[in-house]
Structure formats: C-alpha cells, structure tokens
UniProtKB/TrEMBL annotation:
The lineage of its organism: Bacteria, Bacillati, Actinomycetota, Actinomycetes, Pseudonocardiales. Pathway: Amino-acid biosynthesis; L-methionine biosynthesis via salvage pathway; L-methionine from S-methyl-5-thio-alpha-D-ribose 1-phosphate: step 1/6. This is Methylthioribose-1-phosphate isomerase. Catalyzes the interconversion of methylthioribose-1-phosphate (MTR-1-P) into methylthioribulose-1-phosphate (MTRu-1-P). NCBIfam families: eIF-2B_rel (TIGR00524), PRK05720.1 (NF004326), salvage_mtnA (TIGR00512). Its EC number is 5.3.1.23. The record marks C155 as: Transition state stabilizer. It catalyses: 5-(methylsulfanyl)-alpha-D-ribose 1-phosphate = 5-(methylsulfanyl)-D-ribulose 1-phosphate. It comes from Pseudonocardia cypriaca. One of its GO terms (biological process) is L-methionine salvage from methylthioadenosine. The gene is mtnA. Substrate binds at R49, G50, A51, R90, Q194, N245, K246. Belongs to the EIF-2B alpha/beta/delta subunits family. MtnA subfamily. Transmembrane segments: none annotated. The keyword Isomerase applies. The keyword Repressor does not apply.
C-alpha cells in the first residue's frame, strides 16, 4: 500500500503534510502544518499517530520550527522553547522525543543540515520496518507449526503509524507476501478505533483477509485456539523489555501466556529506550474522558460519568516471547535485556 502518513513539502514556507487519520476510513483528507502549533494540535488530536510516524513528525517538525522562527524573528531561547513543546506533545511514544533530540545538535548548522538529518530519520524507518518484519516472520514460522498462520493484532501499526510498511502489520504483510497468512483478527481498539478504522482500511486495500472483532473477544479467541500468534507494536520498550503499547495489549499477553500462544512485539530500535530500566518508569498518557463516555458527539454513558482513559498499558517482559527489531530478535521471557539482541546469522 503506497499511503504516506507523513510527507515533507519543500517550498518558500516549508510544511509537513499529514493524512488526517481522524477522518479515516470515510475521507482521505490531508492537512498541512507550517507552524509548531498546528503540528502539536495534529499530534494531540491523533491526526498523526503511531510511534514511528510521530518520530518522523518530530524530526521534520524541528525544521518547521526553524523556518517559522526565521519568518517570525524568534531568538534561540524561543526556538528551543517551541521545539521543547513539540517534543512533549505526547509523552509515551519515545520516538517523538528521540527524533527531536537527534536533530538538536544540528540546529546551529542551519536548515539544510537539519532537513538532511530529518530525511535520514524518515528513510531509516522504512528500512528498519521491512527488516524487523522479515525477522519477525522468520521467528514466528520457526515457532508456529500451522500453515498458513492466523494472527491477531491490536491498534494500528501499519503504513499509517510509520513512515511506510509498518511494524506488527509489517510482519503480517511479510507473512502475506510469503503466502503463509490465513487471516488477521483485528481488535477494534477502543476508544478511538484505530483497529477497525485504520488497520482494517489498510488490510482491505492490500487484499489481506481479516475480521474485525470487539476488543473483549480477543482473550476468548486466543484461549479457543483461533489464532496462532499475537503481534503488536510498541510505543516505548524499556531496557528490560517491558513494553508500553495501546491499552488492551497486556490482556492479550496474559491470554497468550495461559494458552501457550506466542506473543510478539514488533518495533524499530528507535522505540527502544535503554535509559528507562523498566516499565515503571514509562509515563502513560491519560486522555480526555469524552473519548470513553461518548462517540461522535453522542453520549454513551450517563451525563456526569467520570472516565479512566489511559491511552497505553505496559506489558511486563515476563509475558513477551519475542521483540523483533531491525537489529535482531530479543526473547524477554528467557532474558529480559534488550541489549541481548540476537543478530541473525
Ligand atoms: O494512540 P496511538 O494511536 O498513537 O497508539 C499507537 C499504538 O499504540 C501503536 O501500537 C504503536 O505506536 C506502534 S505503531 C507502529
């Protein structure tokens, strides 16, 4: 699928072009962000989302901030304040801060140097995703005897969540390309429906057979033997392998552990945060109650109901069979140390 969630628009007023994911699957509309405030708003509304896509926006966003600063006469302090606001627009996916931090040392060298580095971040993401998908597919095919495979996934981890191809959905695409995929069980992913709105949209475009299921159907499907593996993405992976991902992930891992079904995390190395020793140190974004107690502006709970709305949860390393990255596969259940990445022969 050739869809691009994040693109760079070079011109007199440079901008980042985003496919507005809040409007999918009904409408394919783009928005252009030529200033920091518009970018932050797009990130917070989830017009652009998914950890690697946020990394791309963070990298290109620093260039946007520099161009805006030049137009509006910002001094260095103001420029760094605005870049800091962009870096903090969402707290859990480490790729956003990682990408901004990668740009910072180049800022004194000017626009061209920062843009060149941002383009490298963008290009590297697609390469990483394709590689980690191959390694993840190899790992799964070694562990799972059934052919073709039935895979369950959660949230959206495809082209829309990355620069291109995808992470967990990249593994799915790789299995499909090898003719070894039967069906994908797509969790709808409450409350914002990234699974049904976005993942099903991508799979349909690629002609990959799938069923959309309510999130609460997933543990039962795993225990009934309806899936051979669960593959999810990640927003931040701590040094010991504890993994923050879309809320609902940890329930899948618990069901997999009970049923003996492989539970696999697929993520580029830019999502690995070796500075955070374990999941306790990962900040979990809490989102607006309205996402839980209403849909499309219509109340789904009595007026005045309060909500608990963590956007992510943390799956402990002890429940994760494999983390596939472009540098190799780690098996946290056996050795909870992301530094123990296994380089393929
Ligand atoms: O809130 P979102 O939609 O940004 O959450 C996205 C996820 O949890 C993804 O699984 C994760 O970022 C990996 S995307 C390749």
């Amino acid at each position: 699928m050739a869809v691009r969630a994040v693109e760079w628009l070079d011109g007199a007023v440079p901008a980042v072009r985003l496919l507005d994911q809040t409007r999918l699957p009904d409408t394919e509309a783009h928005l252009e962000a030529a200033d920091v405030e518009t970018l932050i708003d797009a990130i917070r509304r989830l017009a652009v989302r998914g950890a690697p896509a946020l990394g791309a926006v963070g990298a290109l966003g620093v260039v946007v901030a520099m161009a805006q600063g030049a137009r509006e006469g910002w001094d260095d302090a103001r420029l760094h304040e605005e870049i800091g606001r962009l870096r903090a627009a969402r707290p859990t996916a480490v790729n956003l801060a990682w990408a901004v931090d990668r740009m910072l040392p180049l800022v004194p060298q000017g626009h061209a140097a920062v843009l060149a580095e941002a383009r490298r971040v963008v290009a590297e993401d697609e390469i990483a995703n394709r590689r980690l998908s191959q390694l993840g597919a190899d790992w799964l095919l070694e562990r799972c005897p059934r052919r073709p495979l039935r895979v369950l996934t959660h949230c959206n981890t495809g082209s829309l969540a990355t620069v291109a191809w995808g992470t967990a959905l990249g593994v799915v695409r790789e299995l499909h390309a090898r003719g070894l995929l039967e069906i994908v069980h797509v969790d709808e992913t409450r409350p914002l429906l990234q699974g049904s709105r976005l993942t099903a949209w991508e799979l349909q475009a690629d002609g990959i057979d799938h069923v959309v299921q309510v999130d609460s159907a997933a543990p039962g499907a795993i225990l009934r033997g309806l899936v051979d593996a669960v593959v999810i993405g990640a927003d931040r992976i701590a040094a010991n392998g504890d993994t923050a991902n879309k809320v609902g992930s940890v329930g899948l891992a618990l069901a997999c552990a009970d049923a003996g079904v492989p539970f696999v995390v697929a993520a580029p190395w830019s999502t690995v945060d070796l500075a955070t020793p374990d999941g306790a140190g990962i900040v979990i974004e809490e989102r607006d109650a309205a996402e839980v107690v209403s849909w499309g502006g219509v109340a789904t709970a009595p007026a005045g109901s309060r909500a608990f709305n963590p956007a992510f949860d943390v799956t402990p390393a002890r429940l994760i069979d494999a983390v596939t990255t472009e540098h190799g596969v780690v098996e946290p259940k056996i050795r909870p140390d992301m530094r123990a990445v296994h380089q393929p022969a």
